[in-house]
Design goal:
With 628 residues, the chain is α/β, with parallel strands linked by helices. The chain is 46% helix and 13% strand. The protein folds into four domains: 65 residues, Signal recognition particle alu RNA binding heterodimer, srp9/1, CATH 3.30.720.210; 178 residues, Rossmann fold; 59 residues, Helicase, Ruva Protein, domain 3, CATH 1.10.8; 183 residues, Up-down Bundle (Methane Monooxygenase Hydroxylase, Chain G, domain 1). The radius of gyration is 40 Å and the shape is extended.
């Protein structure tokens, strides 16, 4: 029996309202009347303006000569002499017994209302019990969505995760033909934990496994199980696994399992709360599968370090499949998948887009293509151009361009030299990344940025890290060299350089005075994460001094490089002040002293002259340099 819709409550409210209206109609006078003060009533009687009176106990209703009705109340029922006086004045007087209360207003109306409410409550609860009166309300039912038909997503729709697909092929084979494994006495992994950063496609891959195996897909979120009422989460877990057994072979997918699977406490903050009961029930259900039951539990998280160890033991989540950010080939494949159905111009090179988006995951790349499509549609173009792709990449990474922001000449010059310093350092330092793009167009929180041509690097060498620190400091060095003064624009540069220098000393063992020792680590508790120091105050002082010395050495190094390249710095800054944005090819042409090609109107960014000028002391945000 289906759960009653809200229509039954609407009908009940209409019935109650109708009964109430009938009661009011029965207890109210047929003709609307207006109250009349007793003194006014006596004056009207003496002046002969009253035509008719109806006496009901101490209430008197009447009609005046002008036809208007009134009601008044006497201190006591009128005496016989008063009635005779009214009759003598020519007033038609009638007596009426006190109005009897309607049975509806005394007993029947409340009884009907209560009866209707009880009837509705009984009907609603019976419907939620399935019509047979058994079980409890749907409050304890699992909120998982069951896709009885296998998803249409397959491994062909998954790109950039080749190793993960190979690892999951065995799961697909088991779901397709479980008897082949059962004959050999093999036990397929009961649980597969997908680990990866947000947006890396963990849910997409889980759907692809179900689509490849052509089995039902049951999906739920970790937060669906946790409620304020103790026992509800455990009941929902039991109901979820009962549903899965009825649909076997199938896949259960629990997204964000860290919401329910966090490490159990040691009594702090409550040791037997609702979340722990839900986790205990999940452990029992995963451990209680029969060998013949073809149900695979897949879960996703980006915080495997906070999961309870009992979840990770063999027999539960036997396997962890890492889904990392894709490399350049994976990004190009993902772009091609999301570009299907979108009209691309001939100048679009997805390989170039993939190379300039290191660290992007599938969700970021999908958003990039969507932004490019929106930009093309906004300009009323029929195809997405490479210019749209470049602009979309900048929007995703740095935010939209602030074309209406008006800068003073002072701000523009400082920004041009600042970003020019970053670019020269990135170009000339041997182990630094190259230059992909330089701009002084305000975007997001930044007044300008230098986009490095960064490759996918897994191992960062000491020389590469030192060059990275030098590139970060190059903007401040250019300001000091040219203006003999400094601004607030290098705030984020200093933060990046300091973080790299400190990690080189305390985590990566790259300083000769401190050796190969990890001086600090990050620990997570139910209250959150924090850094743990494993050294004394004296060592902390030495670390601070070493960080400063390392940064100072790189600053002097890059300052000398810019002194030697002062003429090139002037040319780059002048070109930025002229055209505002330089790509890699234009940057190399400027370094060689060659003139820039004639730029069209679309290359030069227009300014709104009516926009208010921003203050000179405005703090520039991130300059576009990424961390490690």
């Amino acid at each position: 029996m289906k759960t009653p819709s809200l229509n039954i409550w609407v009908i009940l409210l209409v019935i109650i309202g109708a009964v109430w209206a009938i009661n009011i109609a029965l207890t109210s006078p047929a003709t609307p009347t207006a109250d009349l003060k007793l003194s006014t009533f006596m004056n009207e009687v003496r002046s002969g303006k009253v035509r008719e009176l109806v006496v009901e106990d101490n209430r008197v209703r009447g009609v005046l000569d002008d036809g208007s009705h009134f009601t008044t109340y006497l201190p006591a029922p009128p005496s016989a002499s008063e009635v005779e006086d009214w009759i003598a004045r020519g007033i038609e007087v009638r007596a009426q017994p006190p109005h009897a209360a309607s049975p509806l207003s005394g007993f029947l109306l409340p009884a009907m209302v209560i009866g209707l409410i009880l009837l509705a409550f009984w009907y609603f609860s019976r419907a939620n019990r399935g019509g047979d009166g058994s079980g409890a309300f749907n409050f304890t039912k699992s909120r998982a969505r069951v896709l009885a038909e296998a998803p249409k997503t397959t491994f062909k729709d998954v790109a950039g995760a080749e190793e993960a697909k190979e690892e999951l092929e065995e799961i697909v084979e088991f779901l397709k033909s479980p008897e082949r494994f059962h004959r050999m006495g093999a036990r397929i992994p009961r649980g597969v934990l997908l680990v990866g950063p947000p947006g890396s496609g963990k849910t997409h891959i889980a759907r692809a496994v179900a689509g490849e195996a052509r089995v039902p897909f049951i999906t739920a979120s970790g937060s669906d199980f946790v409620e304020m009422f103790v026992g509800v989460g455990a009941a929902r877990v039991r109901d979820l696994f009962e549903t899965a057994k009825k649909n076997a072979p199938c896949i259960i997918f629990i997204d964000e399992i860290d919401a329910v699977g966090r490490k159990r406490g040691n009594g702090m903050g409550g040791g037997n709360d609702e979340r722990e009961q839900t986790l205990n029930q999940l452990l029992v259900e995963m451990d209680g599968f029969d060998k013949e039951t073809s149900v695979i539990v897949m879960a996703a998280t980006n915080r495997p370090d906070v999961l309870d160890p009992a979840l990770m033991r063999p027999g539960r989540f036997d396997r962890q499949v890492a889904i990392d950010a894709p490399d350049v080939r994976g990004r190009e494949q993902i772009l091609r998948i999301h570009a299907s159905g979108k009209p691309l111009a001939d100048d679009v090179d997805l390989g170039v887009v993939a190379r300039r988006t290191p660290g992007f995951v599938g969700a970021d790349l999908e958003n990039l293509l969507n932004e490019a499509a929106l930009l093309a549609a906004r300009e009323r173009r029929r195809k997405i151009t490479m210019k749209d792709m470049e602009e979309a990449a900048d929007r995703v990474m740095m935010g939209p361009a602030k074309k209406s922001m008006v800068l003073t000449e002072f701000d523009k010059r400082i920004t041009a030299y600042h970003e020019g310093g970053h670019a020269l350092a990135a170009h000339y330092l041997e182990h630094a990344d190259g230059v992909h793009k330089i701009t002084i167009m305000p975007r997001g929180r930044a007044l300008g940025f230098m986009m490095p041509d960064r490759e996918d690097v897994l191992h960062w060498t000491r020389k590469r890290l030192l060059d990275q620190i030098a590139v970060a400091l190059a903007g401040r060095a250019a300001e000091e060299l040219v203006f003999e003064d400094v601004t607030t624009g290098a705030e984020n540069d200093f933060r990046q350089a300091t973080e790299l220098a400190r990690r080189m000393i305390t985590e990566w063992g790259m300083h000769p005075d401190f050796g190969q020792v990890a001086y600090q680590e990050r620990q997570d508790t139910f209250l959150g994460g924090y850094e743990v120091r494993h050294y004394s105050e004296e060592t902390a002082r030495r670390i601070d001094e070493a960080v400063k010395d390392l940064i100072d050495a790189q600053y002097q190094r890059i300052l000398q490089l810019l002194r030697d390249r002062r003429a090139e710095l002037e040319r780059v800054a002048a070109a930025l002040l002229e055209v505002e944005t330089l790509n890699a090819e234009q940057f190399l042409r400027v370094l060689a002293g060659e003139p820039l090609e004639e730029t069209d109107a679309e290359t030069r960014s227009g300014r709104d002259s009516e926009t208010q000028v921003i203050p000179k002391a405005r703090i520039r945000g991130e300059p576009g340099l990424g961390g490690v």
